[in-house]
Please model this.
Amino acid sequence: MSANSATPTHTSRIPKVPFWAQIVAGLIAGVLLGWLARSQDVTWLRTTLEQVGDIFVQLLKLAVAPLVFFAILVSITNLRKVNNAARLAGRTLLWFMITSLIAVAIGLAIGLFTNPGAGTGLTRQDGEKPEKAGSWIDFLTGIVPTDVITPFTELNVLQIVFMAAVAGVAALQLGDRAQPILTFSESVLELLQKALWWVIRLAPIGTVGLIGHAIADYGWELIGKYATFTADVYIGCALVMFGVYPLLLATVAKVNPLQFFKGAWPAIQLAFVSRSSVGTMPVTQKVTERLGVPKEYTSFAVPFGATTKMDGCAAIYPALAAIFIAQIFDVQLGVQDYLLIAFVSVVGSAATAGLTGATVMLTLTLSTLGLPLEGVGLLMAIDPILDMIRTATNVAGQAVVPVIVAAREKILDRDAYDSASSSPVDDVEVGEPGRKAAVPAAA
Model:
């Protein structure tokens, strides 16, 4: 029998599970294992879930300090490749402020309407003063580091951003003489993004640990005490993410909002699980690029947003938390207090710095209003559950604003936007140095 007439052999191939499905499976497994650990009092399972979640978060944090430094430095120097760079930077900051104001207004409105602190059964004695509290003096004086090592060892992102911004501006002033440093910085940034990408691939496993530990440690009965407050945070974030953002995209950017979520979903779902804007930053940048925003502008706007654009953590959450804590401690808030909350949300959002949790921003808000800092302890137990939707909202906003600005400035590639797919996060790869990532094919 000739070779040509031979029957072809077919090798069975295991179908590739989409990343979003892996995340969902991790969520389900985490809930089930957490429930099992709590209901059956399985100590070793509870400890294992905690350790798995902690290791995942620690791996994300490991890359945060150098990633923020080189991302901000490179993003500032990349502005030299963009026409009207100062105008773009100004418009980006303006839209950050506009969307933050809208978000904090929604948070205040929901809080005043629902009275989240009423009927909880919580008292002053349930609160605990945090070890570290944020204040305006600490915020302002803490921007400038005392040395160049401590901010990296203590993970003070605000100081790292300051040093990176200074280095970036200095590099722009030096011009061609700074090119060796810029080339080195771009290479290091690509290396860090590649390494972080490996960590991101572990997100489904990290999800099992993070969700499982939250359920095992806190249980559903704790959520019951905070039912109204938890619902308020999720509803507020949902209104901003699925109401305000689509409205702005449709009316200001004049693009299809559904297409935005189709393209940006990999970053939003990863943010929900990882609870870290900075950890999600490489994915956010890539999905923003495939939505048609020029890479040179994206490389500035997304890192800038990952450290300052926090509609969930710095607008909706502190507004609701302030009302919640004021009601628990029986403190009456006036119009001037609500205006102060809005001011802190817009100006002080950089204090959250893209890290897991929003405790610094909350203490900054409470100290500004003169509310007891013991109120922070009331919310720490429920914080992991809230932080998922807060971070997802943060990241959605960090992608929305560049699209709006690019559309207004007529630099948005509308064909790329309209063809952006909902391909899994696996396809949003980090490109080689100096090479623009290709827009993924439709899934």
Observations:
- The longest helix spans residues 43-78.
- Confidence is low (pLDDT under 50) at residues 427-443.
- DSSP finds 18 helices and no strands in the chain.
- The radius of gyration is 23 Å.
